[in-house]
Amino acid sequence: MANYERETPELATPEQAGLVLSDIADLAMMQGDGRRYRSIIGLAPIEVVAHFPSPDSTSDSVLDHLEAVQYVDPATGRPRETGTLALVTFTRDERRDAGLIYQTQVDYTVVADKDGVKNLKRFTLQRETGLHKRSADYAVGMAAMYGETGVQEAFQEAHEANLAMEDAMGIHDVTAAEATAITTELDSLKPISEQR
Questions:
Q1: Rounded to an integer, what is the distance from CA 26 to the centroid of its chain?
Q2: Taking the CA atoms of the chain, what radius of gyration do you get in angstroms?
Q3: pTM of this structure
Q4: CA pair distance 196, 175, nearest whole angstrom
Q5: Residue 130 Ramachandran class (φ > 0 left, ψ -120 to 50 alpha, else beta)
Q6: Does residue 158 fall inside a structural domain?
Q7: Is 28 helix (H, G, I), strand (E, B) or coil?
Q8: Average pLDDT in the 12-31 region?
Q9: Is residue 3 situated within a structural domain?
């Protein structure tokens, strides 16, 4: 019987996670409030694009943008040192027609354990927006608000179980190549005098 083994890519290092965090902090300071940076980018890095679905040839437009957020400890007002430290989100908006947008988000989260060791995790979310979705979302919100207790708790339990399973499978692992592409993209958004 043949033995099929898949080559395991090199994963992002704690040092690369630290560089992503540093770049997010620099960009957030440039934006003004020290917490958030937003930019429209021409095209997300190829390592990120690999997690987007291919756009439909009949779509009116495709737009990639980036948002970087540094999380602050509410008690001190200073950047967090453990838990979720920062997030960089690459979003692709694909306008199918005037009333329908498909949106894919690839979130890269910088996390740190209690010892301060940093790591990167990737999460992908796809959704569609438009008038038809607003009315459906409204109906779900009304059901949750008017007494259908247990719906939110059951969803949260299922979500947490799913995340644990995905973690065990390595679905949220970030490769070293992805981490390098992210830092290169973030660095390119800084003034030339501040780039590495």
A1: 18
A2: 19
A3: 0.79
A4: 21
A5: left
A6: no
A7: helix
A8: 91
A9: no
Question: pLDDT tens digits, residue range 95-150?
Answer: 887 778 888 999 999 999 999 999 999 999 888 877 655 555 555 555 555 555 56
CB-facing half-sphere around the CA of 138: CA atoms within 13 A: 6
Task: Note the maximum CA span of the chain.
Answer: 61
- Structural domain boundaries enclosing 29: 14-130+171-194
146 in a domain, yes or no? no
Structure tokens of 48?
């990120």
pLDDT tens-place string over residues 29-52: 887 666 888 888 878 999 999 999
Cα distances (angstroms) measured from residue 71 to each of 12, 36, 133, 188: 21, 9, 30, 22
Q: Distance between CA atoms of 6 and 28, rounded to whole angstroms? A: 39
18: left (phi over 0), alpha (psi -120 to 50) or beta: alpha
Q: How many domains does the chain have?
A: 1
In this structure, is residue 40 part of a structural domain?
Answer: yes
Q: What is the DSSP string of 40-109?
A: EESS--HHHHTTSPPPPTT-SEEEEEEEEEE-B-TTTSSBPSSEEEEEEEEEEEEEEETTEEEEEEEEEE
Q: Which pair of tokens denotes residue 138?
A: 């409204």
Name the residue type at position 83.
G
